[in-house]
């Protein structure tokens, strides 16, 4: 028995030292309740801690003052599955920061100060299932291809942002979407909203608040009404959501067509006149010849 323990001793020492090293790897002011979780929530952090173990899977950084994420963040922590950055001071995401992740399933960027979600932000994050982007009051721009590669995305939160309009092509390439939050934005029900309205009407089962929970301002008097009070007829005078530029092009091409028509008829008229004179002239010649 005793020799056996003797033999085991170095082995046990090795295991415990490995465990201890892991323990030491937990960033100060963070908790590491298990091997794959690092919890630094609410620690007054002004940057992402340096000494996070590279094999972290759940990283909780909510309720801090973190203003940016290094652009190689997810290259470094490539095992991350769950990343919570809720209630920080993020104002922008460098393109590519989040696009390299293939394992990330849950990402919370809610309650930050983001202004724009550009088309290159998420790239091909095919594992992402839940994306929270709500409560970013200055978020007014979502790039047309912002969510294009997110084929597994089931839940998308964009509530209580500063959005007045959203290109419907942002939502169309999301085959797995089950839940979409858009309430609390200052939506404008002008002609730019027409296509989104049609999409929302067809997909209203995905809206937890339904159409009645989303309000928009009417273009004429700015009155806010729930979408449930509107119908596709409300956008009828938009003629397929023509923009001002479209109208200008239509008017301009109308003018060009009229000018071309006037020129053509003038040309025709002069040709006819010419022929008439010619034939009159030759008639006269004939008459003269007859004399
Ligand atoms: C956001 O984080 C700050 C700083 O830690 C905290 O004081 C505040 O209570 C948090 N807000 C919410 C809604 O959790
Ligand atoms: C959030 O962004 C706005 C405008 O971009 C800025 O005025 C404001 O100071 C920012 N707030 C914080 C807490 O960073």
Automatic annotation (TrEMBL):
The chain crosses the membrane at residues 247-269. GO terms for molecular function: potassium channel activator activity; transmembrane transporter binding; voltage-gated potassium channel activity. Residues 25-58 form the LRRNT domain. Residues 1-23 form the signal peptide. It is a single-pass membrane protein. One of its GO terms (cellular component) is voltage-gated potassium channel complex. PANTHER family: GH08155P, LEUCINE-RICH REPEAT-CONTAINING PROTEIN 38. This is LRRNT domain-containing protein.
């Amino acid at each position: 028995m005793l020799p056996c323990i003797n033999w085991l001793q170095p082995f046990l020492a090795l295991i415990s030292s490995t465990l201890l090293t892991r323990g030491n790897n937990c960033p100060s002011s963070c908790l590491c309740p298990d091997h794959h979780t690092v919890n630094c929530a609410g620690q007054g952090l002004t940057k992402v801690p340096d000494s996070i173990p590279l094999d972290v899977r759940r990283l909780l950084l909510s309720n801090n003052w973190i203003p940016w994420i290094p652009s190689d963040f997810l290259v470094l922590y490539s095992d991350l599955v769950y990343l919570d950055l809720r209630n920080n001071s993020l104002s922008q995401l460098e393109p590519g920061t989040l696009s390299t992740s293939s394992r990330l399933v849950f990402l919370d960027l809610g309650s930050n100060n983001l202004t724009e979600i550009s088309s290159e932000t998420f790239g091909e994050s095919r594992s992402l299932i839940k994306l929270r982007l709500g409560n970013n009051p200055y978020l007014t721009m979502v790039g047309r291809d912002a969510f294009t590669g997110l084929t597994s995305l089931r839940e998308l939160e964009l509530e209580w942002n500063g959005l007045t309009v959203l290109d419907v092509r942002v939502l169309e390439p999301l085959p797995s979407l089950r839940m979409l939050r858009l309430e609390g934005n200052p939506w404008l029900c002008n002609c730019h909203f027409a296509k989104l309205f049609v999409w929302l009407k067809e997909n209203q089962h995905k809206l937890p608040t339904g159409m009645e929970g989303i309000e928009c301002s009417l273009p004429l008097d700015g009155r806010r009404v729930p979408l449930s009070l509107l119908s596709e007829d409300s956008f009828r005078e938009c003629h397929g959501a023509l923009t001002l530029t479209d109208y200008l092009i239509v008017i301009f091409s109308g003018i060009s067509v009229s000018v071309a028509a006037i020129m053509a008829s003038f040309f025709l008229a002069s040709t006819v006149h010419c022929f008439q004179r010619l034939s009159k002239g030759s008639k006269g010649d004939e008459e003269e010849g007859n004399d």
